[in-house]
Structures are given as C-alpha cells and as structure tokens.
Fold this sequence. Notes:
The structure is a homodimer.
Chain A: H1 4-13, H2 21-34, H3 36-52, E1 54-55, E2 62-63, H4 69-72, E3 80-84, H5 87-95, E4 102-105, H6 123-131, E5 137-140, H7 146-161, E6 165-168, H8 184-192
Parallel strand pairs in A: 3-4, 3-5, 5-6
Antiparallel strand pairs in A: 1-2
Helix pairs in contact in A: 1-2
Amino acid sequence: MTTPLLNDLIKALTALPGIGPKSAQRIAFNLLERNRDAARRLSKVLDEAMTRIGQCTLCRTFSEAPLCQLCASTNRDPAVLCVVETPVDVLSIEQSASFRGRYYVLMGRLSPIDGITPETLGLPALERRLAEGEVKEMIVATGTTMEGEATAHYLRQMARRAGVTPTRIAYGVPVGGELEYVDGTTLSHAISSRREY
Amino acid sequence: MTTPLLNDLIKALTALPGIGPKSAQRIAFNLLERNRDAARRLSKVLDEAMTRIGQCTLCRTFSEAPLCQLCASTNRDPAVLCVVETPVDVLSIEQSASFRGRYYVLMGRLSPIDGITPETLGLPALERRLAEGEVKEMIVATGTTMEGEATAHYLRQMARRAGVTPTRIAYGVPVGGELEYVDGTTLSHAISSRREY
C-alpha cells in the first residue's frame, strides 16, 4: 500500500550497511514527515561525495585532492610509515593521537582466492617507496584475520628486502579490560606475546 | 583528517533518525569503499521522493497521485473510516490484514501548545466528510499519549455531532504477552477495560 516511489526509497535505504527493511521504512517515513530539507541535502552531498572523492596518489586513502592532507603535511615524520587496511583505520589511529608518521592504505588485504593480489593493494608502489630510502621503519597494522596476517607476512619480507625495519602493532588484552571478559584467542595471544618488564 | 566533503557526508548522514556520528562514519566509509553505485541510486531516489511525494487529497496520507491507492480502490468499505496519526500506522494496519474500510491520516495529534490545532490536522475536512452521511462508523486509532487521547476525545464529539458511531481500538495486554513482562500502565488499562465473555 506504499507508493511505488516510497517503495523505491525504502529499498534504496537498505543499501546502507546496518539498515534492514524495518529501519529503512522508519527512516523513509520520518524523512518525508519532517525532514525533507535534510534529506535533499543528504541526496546532494551523497552524489557529490561518490563522484568527487578519489584516492590520494601517494598513500591511497580517500581524498578529493591528488594528495591527502596527511601526505601534504610537512609536520609528519617521513621515516615511519604505518600500513593499514582501510581509510577508517587511519582515522582511528589519528584519533588516538599516538602516531606522527605517515600512512599507506592498502584498501583491503591479500586474498588471492578473491582475486586480491599484491598489485590490487598497491604493493609494487609501496616497494618502490621503501627503496627510496626515506622510510626507516614500517609499522604493520593489518588485522589479525588469516588474510591480515598473510598480508603482514608479505609486508615483512618486503621491508627486510629494502632494509627497512618491519614492526607489528601489539595485539593483546585491551587496556582496562578484565581478563574474565577477554576471549580465549586474545588471551592466548597476550600470553604468547608476553615481554619482560 | 577526513576530507571536507567526507565530513559533510558524515554530517548529512546523521540527519537520518537513529544514526549517530559513529554509524554515520561507518556508513560513509562503507559506501565509498564498495557501494558507490548504490549510494548514487539512493541519492537520486531520495531527491525524487522528497520532491514528488505529496499527500492524498482525500485521506492526507503520502501519495504521488492526487488520490492514494486505498482511496482510489473500489474494494474498500466506505462505511467504516479509521483515523490514524501517521501514514506508517496505515501500513501497520494494512499489514495486519484486519481492516477493509478506509483511512484518514491526521499527520500528527492535537497539541495547541505546539501550534497543532484541529485545522493543522485537517479536522474541518473530516467533519465535512462525516456530514456527507456515507461513513457509519469511525474507528479512532490515535495513540495513548496525552495528545493522542485528547485527539480521540475531540474526534468522538465530532462523530457524535454527525450521527456517526465512534469506536476506539482496544488497548491492553499484547496477544501472547506474559503478564509478568507487561508494564503497569498497560496492565491497569487492561483490567479497567475488561469485558464479560
């Protein structure tokens, strides 16, 4: 009994991650009832963002300009390069304010079965960058999935070949976390990665 | 460290009900990473829907045509009119497949403090419709909030003046609900609205 256009809208809204048919319906009615201006604004910026946001030519993160803000900045240490899987990882690390080096964004992780090869992830370009000699340490912050670990392994070999020190961020019990609530895999990793203090 | 346009997108997404800044960020990155086509489709249909969806001239629900599907249908009983607060209420009742009459959608509930008067809710038009004599029963399905009850009270008087039987949908313990989990207000309403059987 909804109109054809309203049905289209509800269907299009379910393309958003985490939005099911019920939420989409609620959002559609809410926008029509009292938020038409905001919805039009969203429509405009959505189209603009999808069209104009490309990738940084140096680090591959999302950027409207050829060079992203971080790569263009002169305040960042060029000797330390942090390799992450996605642009949102960059955001998370920046929000922790714990890193002043530069980034390289893979936009995925090695998975030959899915056709994701070193070329897909821009690894040849990364290797050329390491060969230039400016980078001294490469921090690998890929995930702990099987593909993330395989990618980390590949990156380590690449760094060694270029004479760059490869490091891996620490995985373990979250700070403030109680052992009781930590899953077994994390805990066994935390124990096997223990260090003298 | 996000781009200006990406910031705009995240901000525009928080206009959606139930989407906070964190979800908006996740949605924005997800769309950019692997759903640009769906996002463009959403942008298009969003703008179209906000511009083209108006209200049915007869029952005031959302409609692209002057008359909505339900008002245009000849299969509905014109003697029973169900008054609801919002278009989504129509949808809910239709999905329950328990009603074959027609609807009237108030698009709100009486609240003089907020400037929502009988005129805002189209009640003069409803009164004229009742006066035509085709409607025999008016089912009032406004909510149980104070404003919903005030609206129901106003509608009952209107129906009485026009010689139409006013009825109110039943409020009480949900079917299949256990008394243990029903809130006190609902339970006391269910007890005071008890009927012989």
